[in-house]
Write a structure and sequence with these properties.
Blueprint: E1 3-9, H1 14-37, H2 44-61, E2 65-72, E3 75-82, E4 86-94, E5 98-103, E6 119-123, E7 133-139, E8 142-148, H3 152-159
Helix pairs in contact: 1-2
Length: 178
């Protein structure tokens, strides 16, 4: 069985860093309130304080994301991996379902980005200068756009199954692992 897989790590932006700081600040304030106002509960206030920090840790760890693109035959799976430990499938589709796939900066096809979509999936790294591709398809009755950064060999592999729908940019990097 032939397959390709590719893993990219999303860069933490200013919003994610700010959210992490705010989560821990809120946990600190909640812990202070628990320790100060709930002293008469007989020890449970310290458990609540620890619980607040644990909750902040869990929520902050979900901001660290990696995306894995797995292509087996004509099937594409895009998974998100939180904090290098928990995996969730974002979307699975057949290459044959694709209406169009091109680089976001492709002037011939980027007018399609202005269309209305029922669902938007962004599985890109947000890195400056990255070649991000968009895929438009009908998925579970919804018009869906998927933004991701496949390698050149992943694109070539997918193109075998839908050569007229997948348009490859020359600027795409190839750093596969298998």
């Amino acid at each position: 069985m032939n397959y390709k897989e590719y893993l990219v790590k999303r860069k933490l932006g200013a919003a994610e860093i700010l959210a992490t700081v705010m989560l821990y600040f809120a946990a600190f304030m909640l812990a202070l309130c628990c320790l100060y106002y709930l002293r008469m509960l007989g020890g449970i206030e310290s458990l609540l304080a620890v619980g607040a920090f644990y909750l902040a840790y869990i929520l902050a760890s979900r901001l660290k994301k990696e995306f894995e693109y797995i292509i087996v035959e004509d099937s594409v799976d895009i998974d998100v991996i939180f904090n290098a430990s928990k995996r969730k499938n974002l979307i699975s589709f057949s290459v044959k379902q694709i209406e169009v796939m091109a680089a976001m900066n492709d002037t011939k096809y980027n007018s399609r980005l202005k269309e209305q979509f029922d669902k938007v999936i962004d599985a890109s790294t947000w890195k400056k200068g990255a070649v991000v591709y968009f895929t438009i398809l009908e998925h579970k009755g919804q018009k869906t756009i998927v933004k991701f950064e496949p390698s050149a060999s992943c694109l070539e592999y997918m193109k075998k199954y839908a050569p007229d729908k997948i348009h490859i940019s020359e600027a795409t990097e190839d750093s596969d692992f298998e």
